[in-house]
Amino acid sequence: MQKRRWRWISLNLLRKLLMYAVCMIALVALFSVHLFPSSSSIKVPNFSDAFKLPTQHELKHQSWTRELTPPHLSKGKDPLSSHSRQLVGAREISDYDKLWKRSSNSKFEPCIEPSANYTSPGESRGYLLVHANGGLNQMRFGICDMVAVARIINATLVIPELDKKSFWQDNSHFSDVFDEDHFINVLANDVRVVKKLPKELATASKSKKEFRSWSGVEYYEEEITNSWLNHQIIQASKSDSRLANNYLPLDIQKLRCRACYEALRFAPRIEAMGKLLVDRMRSYGPYIALHLRFEKDMLAFSGCTQELSPAEAEELRMLRNNTDNWKIKDIDSKEQRSKGECPLTPKEVGFFLSALGYPSNTPIYIAAGETYGGDSHMAYLLSHYPYIMSKEKLATVEELQPFINHGSQLAALDYIVSVESDVFIPSYSGNMAKAVEGHRRFLGHRKTIVPLRKTIVRLFDKLENATLKERKKISSQIIDAHIKRQGSPRKRKGPISGTRGMDRFRSEESFYTNPKPECLCQRETPNANTSHIIR
What GO biological process terms does the UniProt entry carry, in alphabetical order (predicted)? Predict the structure, then answer.
């Protein structure tokens, strides 16, 4: 009897111990998921109808650019989502808000209306055919320049042909990427635009031109218009950087802005998908759009091999040597990096974000193609910032299917999510970075942090053997170096002192990176009844 009693007591005690162990394991698992989430544990939830693509009928009436201020940053609304509040303590909220606060922009607004002397396009002297070259954003710049050129030479612009032979091998037509009818209608009072040449001119001879880079109005008026004497068609073989950044007539500069920010709207299905991605990112709270240019083509072109294996470096060298239009073949990677001419690596980006004070729960959207080397090079960044998203994570395979194998269309999705982000950070100053920064300035100087790569890599190299005290000092140096590099209003930068010829033009800040002062004006209100624009 006594043995049976002891057996019952032992079993009861063992049962309680097992229950206690199970509870402890469950608690540990719960805390590990919520406080230290791994990248594999972060999944996109099943979204409601509000986060789904609209119907074909609804596509015709939507534009993501109509909403200039994200809902969670509207006046009177809390910039922290419930997700963010759960992860940030009350004492830290004030500092957390500072990370997302945009620069003061209340005194500046778009001013792209033509002057009182501006007239509708006169009788056309002929047709301008344009081959837009490069990736999406290089083509955007070129198309907008060609709109202005068509105005200058009094030509009818034929809808440009997009680049199908570059590295990206994208066979998209203009109407696949942009809203063709919208483009034609918006520019109706500026330039006559047609979808194709008239049939009677299909076989007519053309005056083939490669317009001179960074040219002024005089070049087009005095040299190019002579082609109308013997031809009805001028064919431009390239469109990039064919207009000067500065010293053009004010109405021409404003026309470039109207073309870029009003006429050149993405095709309806791209806009709808882009808005959907934005809405899904905002469901996580304020987010950073990171243009992580650690991609195969960029690394091969720049000759940067930091953190790559010898086999990877050799693969990129072969790609560079086999790409005919990449002129420079022999590149010293260490020298490139020390001069700040390499894109930041994912590890350097993680260091930069930490130094700025962004916490590990910050939602980050990767606005780029496939990271070279995949997860092997993303490990450090993912371990420090596990809430990393991309279009592939936010959308289903079926939703992205129409855009697959179309690099320009995929880049357009990244463009939309980047322009609408709370903070945009480019790891390299390429065309995407320039285009997004300029568009964000135009929409109200949204916060854009442009890394000083030369400074960052120098401090990053000191970090490995640094003490805790030295690490805090390095972080302060990073913050101080970027106080004035966050998208606040300023005039466009001119050429670097001492540069000459084409290098002088090349060193200027792009018009599309900063359309101020021509397209952004300061509004002053002397009293409640009157106001005026200072240009």
Answer: fucose metabolic process
386 upstream amide cis, omega within 30 of 0? no
* Regions of the chain where pLDDT drops below 50: 26-42, 44-45, 48, 50, 56-57, 66-91, 528-535
* Residues 6 or more apart whose Cβ sits within 8 Å of residue 42: 386, 387
Please, where are the H alpha helices in 61-112?
82-87, 93-100
* DSSP letter (8 states) at residue 36: S
Identify residue 75 by its one-letter amino acid code. Answer: K
Q: Which two tokens stand for residue 514?
A: 């900063």
Query: ∠452-454-460 over CA atoms, to 5°?
Result: 95
Distance of CA 521 to the CA centre of its chain: 24
DSSP structure class, residue 79: S
What is the enclosing helix (H) or strand (E) of 532? strand 530-534
Contact of 242 with 215, CB cutoff 8 Å: yes
CA-based torsion, 392, 393, 398, 399: positive or negative: negative
Residue 160: CB atoms within 10 Å: 23
C-beta of residue 147 within 8 angstroms of C-beta of residue 189: no
Structure tokens, 41: 């544990």
Dist. CA 172–CA 318, nearest whole Å: 28
Closest CA to 456 of 307, 321, 351: 351
156 three-state secondary structure: strand
Per-state percent for the chain, helix, strand, coil, to nearest 5: 45, 10, 45
Check: CB of residue 532 under 8 Å from CB of residue 524: yes
Q: What is the 3-state secondary structure (H, E, C) of 213-277?
A: CCECHHHHHHCHHHHHHCCCEEEECCCCCCECCCCCCHHHHHHHHHHHHHHCCECHHHHHHHHHH
Q: What is the pLDDT of residues 11-22, one digit of tens each?
A: 566 566 556 555
CA distances for 17 relative to 12, 21, 23, angstroms: 9, 6, 10
What size, in residues, is the chain? 535
Cis check for the bond before 517: say yes or no (omega within 30 of 0).
yes
CA atoms within 13 A on the CB side of 364: 24
CA distance 25 to 488: 50
Print burial letters for 173-195: b (CB count within 10 Å at least 16), e (below 16): ebebbbbbebbbebbeebbbbee
What pLDDT is recorded for position 164? 85
Residue with tokens 């000092």: 473
- Name the residue with tokens 């894109």: 343
> Of all helices (H) and strands (E), which one includes residue 129?
strand 127-130
Token representation of residue 442:
């135009």
**Bridge partners of residue 533, in order along the sequence:** 523
pLDDT digits (tens, 9 = 90+) for 339-359: 999 999 999 999 999 999 999
